[in-house]
Structures are given as C-alpha cells and as structure tokens.
Amino acid sequence: MSVVEKAIRKLQESQAAPGEAPTPASSQAAGAAQAPAQTAQQTVTAPVPGAAPARRPAIVIERGTLRAAGLLPPEQDMAQLSRQYRKIKHPLMAQAVGRGVPRAPKGYLIMIASAMSGEGKSFTAMNLALSLSLEKDVRVLLVDADVAKPQLSQVLGLAKTPGLLDALRDVTVDVESLIVPTDVATLSFLPAGVGAEEATELLSSNRMERLTTLLGQRDSSRIVVFDSPPLLQTTESTALVRVAGQIVLVVRAETTPQPVVLDALKMLEGHPGVSLVLNQSTRAVAQSYYNYSYGGDRGGRAESGTT
Ligand SMILES: Nc1ncnc2c1ncn2[C@@H]1O[C@H](COP(=O)(O)OP(=O)(O)O)[C@@H](O)[C@H]1O
Ligand SMILES: [Mg+2]
C-alpha cells in the first residue's frame, strides 16, 4: 500500500471510529464577518548597511476581531481548541527546533497547505502560530503567503502594507524591516505585500529560497508558519512546497473529496515532512494529526493523535 493510500485509510478509520462523542462546537465554522484589527500605521524604512533593520510599530492581535473573521472559534470553545493545537504543534515544534528528535532540514519553515480553498489553512496557520508562540525559547513568524487571497493581512489591517512580495521583488529590501511585531512578544507577522500580479514568478524565483534561508539565519529560535494558496487551484504553492521543511496538509473532514486529497498528497510525494490535520470533523477526532515521513532517516513512520 502506498504512503498516500495509507494516509487516506488512516483518515477514513478516524472518521469511522466507534463511540465518538457528537460534534464539539469548536469544530464548527465560526462567523466570517470581516473586520479590520486595530493596527498602527506602518512605515517602510530603507535598510542602512550594517545597521539592524528598523522595527515596524507593533500591531495588536485583537481576539474579538480574529473571532469575527472566523480565525478563532467562539470563546466557549477556546479551551478545547487549545488542547487540540497543543497536540498538533508538539511534533512540528520538535522537528523545527530539534527538541527530543533530530532537527529536520529547514524544519523551522512550516507550510500550512490544503488541496482547495476553504479547508481551514488560514484558521490553522493563525491558531498554530498563536499556540507555538506560547512555547518557551521559540519565536514565531507568521507569513501570509496566500498572496492572491491575503486573508490574514486583511484581518490584521495590513492588506496594503509591503511584505513578502515586496521583499521578493526588490533584493535591496531587507525582509526583516517588513516584519511587523505584535503585542504577543514572541509572535510577529509578515504581510503578503502589494502587487500580486507577478506573484507566481516572484514566489517561484530563487529569491524565495534565499529569502526563507535569510529568515532562518536571522534567529535560530524562529519558527516560520506560512499560510499558503491552495495546492490544486494555484501554481504559487509549488514554490512553497520546495522551500518548506515541514508541510501540514489541512483536510476538511467530510467535505474534501477523497480523490482531491489524493491529488494533493501526490503533489507532496517525496517531501520528507508531511503531516495531515483533519479539520472541522463532526466527530470528536476533530483536528486529528498524522505525521507521514517519506524516506531518509525519518522514513516509514506514522503517528496519529486524536483529541
Ligand atoms: N477548526 C475550525 N473550527 C471552526 N471553524 C473553522 C475551523 N477551520 C476552519 N474554519 C472556518 O472555515 C472557513 C474556511 O477556513 P479558512 O481558514 O479561511 O480556509 P482557507 O484558508 O483554507 O481558505 C472559515 O470561515 C473558518 O472560520
Ligand atoms: Mg485562507
């Protein structure tokens, strides 16, 4: 049985597991009204050679705004969701920083992917970033790489703010100077940036590789979480697959057709660090987490955790 088939079988088994409790409310879609977060004015500063990049003013991570935009579940479901994300983040963090296991090559670059849009990438990216930011000795950089649909940038009020695309377009721009700190000391954000027309070329250029290497070199405790475009609906995500050390494939339970999941997994075949998150399940296994490793030292192992 191929690894892909095993992944699908595992998903099916979890959905059919007997004795599960009925739908936890946290696994239901929250309201999706858009409202801009409270943000400070941003200024872009040209880098001064040899000087530390100027920091942008911090933005406030406004939970109410995130909730209204569907990036956090209702207040009463937060505790359950936090537990789910603790399970999801630990293996990712272990590989990213080498806690208890060997550090995965570029494991600190974590791409949140899905076959289609609407499966929960932005929700997962935000909640994973928030959960990781609670960890000791870890700094989290959340990057909005869904340049065609930059929901995170919009919700944080940074839609028109220079970011990833601008750093890719102009090599003289220091990407660090475009990173926006937040009121969560260990969490910062890189907006998608402006001018998405040439996004495919920019993202797939060698500059993406260089930029992500720079992000890792600047701070060894940094974990970078990329929200990304859907794998099967855009070409931009292929570039991210190439640079990411870990990929979390979000699968919307009972919605995404199995052949679609298979196609997405095929696109990731050969990548050494692919995990699956079963999202929005109507069973108590919501947010189940599976880790599949293909080849190398990490080959052949499958883990699963259920909530
Ligand atoms: N685990 C979850 N619990 C509750 N709502 C969720 C969950 N995951 C996603 N959603 C909701 O599903 C919708 C699509 O999620 P989103 O993250 O925007 O998908 P994508 O980024 O893949 O297009 C949003 O309205 C979001 O609020
Ligand atoms: Mg999204």
- Order of helical and strand elements: HHHEHEHHEEHHEHEHEEE
Number of strands: 9
The level of helicity is 25-40%
Poorly predicted ranges: 14-49, 293-307
**First-last Cα distance:** 27 Å
Number of domains: 1
Protein structure class: alpha/beta
Q: Average pLDDT value? A: 80
The gyration radius over C-alpha positions equals 18 Å
Most strands sheet = 9 strands, mixed
Strand content: 5-15%
What is the CATH superfamily classification? Answer: P-loop containing nucleotide triphosphate hydrolases
The CATH architecture is 3-Layer(aba) Sandwich
CATH class, please? Alpha Beta
> What global shape is seen?
globular
Strands of the largest sheet, in order across it? 3-4-2-5-1-6-7-8-9
* CATH third-level topology: Rossmann fold
| Count, helices | 10
Which molecules are bound in this entry? adenosine-5'-diphosphate, magnesium ion
Seen as an oligomer or otherwise, the chain set is: single chain
Descriptive report:
With 307 residues, the protein is of the alpha/beta class. It has one domain (55-305): P-loop containing nucleotide triphosphate hydrolases (Rossmann fold). 33% of the residues lie in helices and 15% in strands. The protein has ten helices and nine strands. The protein has helices spanning 3-16, 63-68, 78-97, 121-132, 151-155, 164-169, 199-204, 206-218, 237-243, 258-268, and strands at residues 109-113, 139-144, 180-181, 187-190, 222-227, 246-252, 274-279, 288-292, 302-305. It has a nine-stranded mixed sheet, sandwiched between helices. A hairpin with an 8-residue loop joins strand 7 and strand 8 (288-292). It starts with a helix and ends with a strand. Residues 121-122, 146, 149, 151, 227 line the site of magnesium ion.
